[in-house]
Amino acid sequence: MNLESNTITINKSPEEVFEFLTKVENFEQIMPESKQNFEKINDSRFLFQLKGMPEIVLEQKESTPSSQVVLGAASDKLPFTLTADITPLEDGKSSTKLTFEGKFNAMMAMMIKNPIQNFINTLSENLGKL
Question: Which SUPFAM superfamilies match (predicted)?
């Protein structure tokens, strides 16, 4: 299952956006209002829970300075990645697009598609407000 957010413009340079996204504690600032729990585990992992959802641990899997940050599920039970692609724009601005890729059976995919799409859209919108 592949889902994408809209591409959003951020009034920060690609370096600033990259720096923000590689500090896992910053994700608390862009989480949806339905966040019930957020906890930094270490410099590359955090745990979060949204209302009505199980706790999920995300960890930074890889990064390419100033252009991409890839987070992934720390558990094999829900195998997925969340990738932020950062593109430079003029005047110290950048654009960012979030892509969710997960391997789920058809029933699970049908159940989680809308909540996941809403989640990545909210992360993207909140990132644009920085």
Answer: Bet v1-like
